[in-house]
Amino acid sequence: DIDVAHVTRKEYTLIDIASDGYVTLLNDDGSTKEDIALPKEADSADLSAKIRAEFAAGKELIVTVVSSLGIEKILTFRENKDSYCLLYTSDAADDLLCVDLGGRRIIKKK
Fold it and tell me: What dihedral do alpha carbons 46, 52, 53, 58 form, nearest 10°?
């Protein structure tokens, strides 16, 4: 018998990068994921720098996370061209067309 590692790939919207390199990612269901850092390996330094630069430029980014054997890693990213926009608001109202992110709301365009 041969053991085969199960590899999964999932895309998340990047909503923040902390000073220590950990990212806040938005799941499809509106929950957040905060336990993944930008890649720190020498061969991934360029990827991390590009993500930081694009995010700092105000672009909405989608990151691809690959996981296997209990390890998760950001593998690539792209600019989000889908029909969502990020609004900054103090409105805490909750309606069916948006997700409240503690002052930031993702609203799906019709």
Answer: 150
